[in-house]
Specification:
The protein is an alpha/beta fold and 376 residues long. The protein contains 13 helices and 12 strands. Bound molecules: pyridoxal-5'-phosphate.
Length: 376
């Protein structure tokens, strides 16, 4: 039987045409016409004052750490159940991660545990909208506001998801997006920084352009461009923005397809899951999810490993994540130990992600479902 991968890069249709246009425009480096189109589309569709494409979500997070002037010893509250760069971007500036456990239902940071972790050194809180299902932003923003702490959303999973009718990415002072191959919309490697607090805007442009005021120079606001601040090269080639634009412009169709895939798993596996004591993702009523993934919570680590092996025998790839960051080699060096985040540790052993990508055919999905039905 042919393999069914866990993920497969997607081509919406016009990628090559747009890349060719970008080449012919003789502006293939950053901030060309397709980058501008992506910025305008993200600003309008998400409803943020400013979007800036970056070379990755990791780099957007690094920009956020620079914008917040993170200093050695500053504390950053972050879920242990996330991708490594959510926090590594801040550790690069000398920050100390303060890992918070997750809620057992949405697997998002548990806002009821937030206040007890805040100290005078807390600089920022980073909610991650896991699987594109929103964190409890009202409570998080209320607590952060009371202590004067900046909130940065890691919205890598959540583009076009909503919380109480409002788009994810509009709640934090800053938010970060990923356009990595495994995300809903992709250009291979890419990302974006969304800026809601416009006080960060001018410096964000400078940091993204190697610490220079090049953006202002091109707008005619200054008559020479020079080194003015810290910075790096965080802007992607316009050819990559061309690829991305071909996907973003058909975002409704892509999201509808992902919704269909998600609902098919849900409906087809419901009875089986109930019989075997397996839990599905929980989407609270006030959240519209972004359909980033479909996961199963198995009853035990052994069952999870057995299902991965069972699917592998049918040439179907399924994966698990995240290994708790506080128990990683780096996390332990920073003081993490067993029991710090009990729910994260438990969930991490039992979660399994099924194949999920824009080009997944109904036929292949039916094969995944049939294979799972054979698992006991
Ligand atoms: C994918 C991901 C990132 C990193 O994105 P890149 O674009 O690969 O740097 C960060 N945070 C979360 C939650 C992610 O899923």
């Amino acid at each position: 039987m042919p393999p069914i991968p866990f993920n497969q890069p997607f081509v919406a249709g016009k990628e090559i045409e747009y890349i060719q246009q970008s080449i012919e425009s003789r502006h293939t480096c950053g901030d060309g016409s397709f980058t501008k189109k992506c910025h305008a589309l993200l600003e309008q569709a998400v409803g943020v004052p400013k979007a800036l494409l970056t070379t990755s979500c990791t780099h957007a997070l690094e920009m956020a750490a620079l914008l917040l002037d993170i200093q050695p010893g500053d504390e950053v509250i972050v879920p242990s159940f996330t991708f490594v760069t959510t926090i590594n971007a801040f550790v690069l500036r000398g920050a100390k991660p303060v890992f918070i456990d997750i809620r057992p239902d949405t697997l998002n940071l548990d806002e009821s545990k937030l206040e007890q972790l805040i100290t005078p050194k807390t600089k920022t809180i980073i909610p991650v909208h896991y699987a594109g299902i929103s964190c409890e932003m009202e409570e998080i923003l209320e607590i952060a506001g009371r202590y004067g702490i900046t909130v940065i959303e890691d919205n890598a999973h959540g583009l076009f998801g909503k919380y109480k009718g409002k788009n994810l990415g509009t709640f934090g002072s800053l938010a970060t997006q990923s356009f990595h191959e495994t995300k809903n919309f992709s250009c291979g490697e890419g990302g974006a920084l969304l800026i809601n607090d416009t006080r960060y805007l001018e410096r964000a442009e400078i940091i993204r352009e190697k610490g220079t005021n090049r953006s202002r120079f091109f707008r005619g606001q200054v008559d020479k461009y020079t080194w003015v601040d810290l910075g790096s090269s965080y802007l992607p080639a316009d050819m990559l923005a061309a690829y991305l634009y071909a996907q973003l412009e058909v975002r409704e169709a892509i999201q509808a397809k992902r919704q269909q895939i998600w609902e098919y798993y849900y409906e087809q596996l419901q009875d089986w899951a109930q019989q075997h004591n397996i839990r599905f993702p929980i989407v609270p009523k006030h959240c519209e999810q972004a359909y980033h993934m479909f996961y199963l919570l198995m009853p035990s680590l052994e069952k999870r490993q057995a299902l991965i092996a069972h699917l592998k025998a049918q040439n179907i790839s399924s994966v698990f994540h995240y290994l708790p960051l506080h128990l990683s080699d780096m996390g332990r060096k920073l003081g993490g130990k067993e029991g710090d985040c009990a729910i994260t540790e438990d969930i991490s052993d039992r979660l399994l992600r099924l194949p999920f990508y824009n080009g997944l055919t109904l036929e292949d999905q039916a094969r995944v479902v049939a294979s799972i039905h054979d698992f006991h």
